[in-house]
Amino acid sequence: MATQSSRSAARIMMAPAVFLLLVWMLVPLCMTLWFSLRDYRPLRGGDLGFVGLENFARFVSSSSFWPAVFTTVLIVGGVLLVSIVFGVLLAMLLDQPMWGQGVVRILVIAPFFVMPTVSALVWKNMFMDPTNGVFAHIWRAFGADPVVWLTDVPILSLILIISWQWLPFATLILLTAFQSLDSEQLEAAEMDGANPLARFFFIALPHLSRAITIVILIQTIFLLAVFAEIFVTTGGAFGTRTLTYLIYQRVLESQNVGLGSAGGVYAIILANIVALFLMRIVGKNLDR
Amino acid sequence: MGRITLDKVRKAFGDVEVIPPLDLTIEDGEFVVFVGPSGCGKSTLLRLIAGLEDVSGGEIRIDGQDATMVPPAKRGLAMVFQSYALYPHMSVRKNIAFPLRMAGLDRAEQERRVKAAAEVLNLTDYLDRRPGQLSGGQRQRVAIGRAIVREPAAFLFDEPLSNLDAALRVGMRLEISELHKRLKTTMIYVTHDQVEAMTMADKIVVLRAGNIEQVGSPLELYRAPRNTFVAGFIGSPKMNLITGPVAAQHDATTIGIRPEHIRVTEGAGDWQGTVGVSEHLGSDTFFHVTCAGIAEPLTVRVGGEVDLRYGDTVHLTPDPEHLHRFDAQGLRIA
Q: How far is C-alpha A225 from the geometric centre of its chain's CA atoms?
């Protein structure tokens, strides 16, 4: 029902927001592309001019590139595995009728609201600290030597911290999926002679498949960008340098903006490939 | 074999007793219909028999064996649900084979039984489709197929036709009756639709608030309803129930007369009344007649097409042979 004038008025009023969004996205993108083609070291000679694709070649041929990719895959994969396996189990538990259900559900989502930096510091100092941490106390209570978590098993520690943050998200999405499962289907399977395990694998899990794909899609995109947790715990040491962290180090620690930007472009391409791949799976799932 | 005996079976949810102690015997090969208004406990009763709900007291025996504590899968009963409860991610073939797969039958035997069931139910062309690609009637048949492959002692149907449109319902009603004649297996069928009950049942169990109001063959219930509830529930259109002085003339608190047992004449009759709304079905015509001294308008059936209009005066005469009399407790006076 919009008239010509109200439509153009709407356009004018929306313009600032659209402009802002475009600038917000396009300027950094263009600058990244621009810097990735130049040899730019702010504290070591400044802008040294165009170098073509040399930055791209140097970024992937660096000895830290493949280990960083490997670490990224390990952390993302580990967190996905933990959050989906435990997410399904927790969702099943929360789906049971129980006293104080509402409060429990809010408590379950709570870790998601804690800032990554804060939760990583809490884990580092209160749980994983080898002298004063809760884990150390538990270990000592059983007469064992406390584990120096962030040094001895750094990847596992990181997976633990990040999973703790993302588990609520997975649980919540899987819980809603569980609630939409038709109870008559489960009863039919029960009458058909399926034991609880068979009911889970043949009825519940297939029903959850779409929700699981969505969790994988969304979490992968966010997990590829994990930074704060690594920064405040290991600082990229002990083989916990992910691709994101490597880019940060190239730009800020080595003061090589050009090289870091090239890495950034790789990260953009990688994230898009993942997104495209997963979108197709979700699309196929939604068709059914 | 499928003889099911309920002995003082009781069900309570917390403090609310939905089924007071109840006795019932279902003979082998019988088609029994549980009928009653919604919330009367008929589905709960079926679920108790299936084992999906635990009884609060009493005993359920299947073929003489105590099955009260036996898990649903071990009772040898198959159930068809109101929502069909097909597994959406499996093909029709896999849906039907599911109980066999759970029972650990080998593939060849599974395939043979699925084929046989599909032939009985005209599903052969649809075996590779998903439930989502089937019509309501076909889904219903798949659900029945999943029940027959198990060769159960008895089939339990929980309002299986309520999600179908009227035309399909009549068709499926026939198919289920046909299936019963062919398999000769005990069937227990829950419905709120008394037409389904009347047309399909060997034995009807009328329930109200968890109590059995009457058990009997469709015609027994039609001819001699035990109380006013059964009288009003069985038969379509409903029996006219008349209270007050008119009933007192017949030495009863309430009298009941079915629309088909009232004679309509232009002159001289027991009750004089005015024609209200009329429903012309072609084969029959139903008139709603308001009579002096009778609170509710009476429904009257007249065969064929009759030329009576809104506001016409008519006389009604009940057929004394088909007059039902009930006492103050609503029970039938013999």
A: 6
Q: Are residues B99 and B150 in the same domain?
A: yes
Query: So what's the ipTM on this one?
Result: 0.79
Same-domain status, B22 and B128:
yes
Give CA–CA dist B223/B235, Å, rounded: 10
Residue B301: what residue type? R
Q: What is the CATH number of the domain that holds A218?
A: 1.10.3720.10
Tokens of A189: 């399977």
| Order of strands, sheet of B254-257, starting from the edge strand that comes earlier in the sequence | B240-243, B254-257, B324-326
* A273 lies in some domain: no
pLDDT band at A1 (very low <50, low <70, confident <90, very high): low
At A288, the amino acid letter reads R
Q: Encode pLDDT of A241-265 as tens digits.
A: 888 888 888 888 778 888 888 888 9
Q: What are phi and psi of A49, to 5 degrees?
A: 90, 180
Domain that holds residue B98: 4-226
Note whether residue A200 is domain-resident: yes
Q: Where are the beta strands (DSSP E) in B49-202?
A: 57-62, 65-66, 77-80, 154-158, 186-191
pTM above 0.90, yes or no: no
Chain-chain contact of A194 with B102 (C-beta, under 8 angstroms) = yes
The residue range of the domain holding A228 is: 65-240
Asked, for residue B231, whether it belongs to a domain, the answer is no
Interface of B with A in 65-94 (CB under 8 A): 71-73, 77-79, 81-83, 85-89
Q: Are residues B180 and B32 in the same domain?
A: yes
**Residue B96's closest chain A neighbor by CA?**
A192
